[in-house]
Amino acid sequence: MARSPEPPRYYAAAGYHRPSPSSSVAASCVVAALFILLAAGGAAAALFLLYRPQAPAIAVTAVQLPSFASRNGTVAFTFQQLASVRNPNRSPLAHYDSSLRVAYAGGEVGSMYIPAGQIDGGRTQYMATSFTVPAFAVTSSAAAAASSSPAQTITVPASGPSPAAVGAVALQQEQPPPQQQVAAPPVMEVDSLLVVKGKVTILRVFTHHVVAAKVCRIGVSPADGRVLGFRC
Which residues 6+ apart lie within 8 Å of 62 measured at CB? Predict the structure, then answer.
């Protein structure tokens, strides 16, 4: 039987050797593993873009002070705020530890916690909060305006036009002609902070915590507690 010719000697000198079957199998396994990793990464990126968690969107629609009392340089009132919270995610949003806080002159004067709940994906939930703010001291200008009228408690109906619209109309009606301009009436500015915390569970496996906040500055008449307007 004829033998196969051996490779020239200079091939051996150059380091030539036949590839073994085991090395070919290992290279194929490495290529397959890289392909699986790339496919898994692409699928994860697509799922993240499709189900990426987003914080809820908050919009304050109305602010009212149904009751207001002023006495001896202090004021106390009942604070009401209506807000809408929209869940932009495809998955439900379970909210908890949410709160509404009211501050004046940089210090907190009242707060309340919002009961836990759930907002379905793509849905909007309205949150109506109301709590009593105990008496607190106001600045000298606001106290002077409040003391100019006798101690009283003002009750405002819960329904009616938007406080912002009412305040704008009242200011336009009370504004004198240009030649008779007078000093603007004092305004007590109160800040409200609505914080919504929760979690979104993606594909019933991955949980992502989200938080959103909305700050509003509310102009209140220190004499009778009218809401002159608010800006968020």
Answer: 80, 81, 82, 162, 163
CA distances from 197 to 103, 120, 166 (A): 20, 15, 32
Q: Are 59 and 197 in contact (CB under 8 A)?
A: no
Q: Indicate whether this model's pTM tops 0.70.
A: no
Where exactly are the structural domains of the chain?
A: 24-52, 54-137+184-229
Spatial separation of the C-alpha atoms in residues 88 and 91, rounded to whole Å: 9
Q: Which residues contact 157 (CB under 8 A, 6 or more apart)?
A: none
- Over residues 184-205, the pLDDT tens digits come to 568 999 999 999 999 998 877 8
Cβ atoms within 10 Å, residue 82: 16
In angstroms, the CA 13 to CA 39 distance is 43
Site of tokens 């240009």: 178
Q: Considering the domain 54-137+184-229, what is its CATH architecture?
A: Sandwich (2.60)
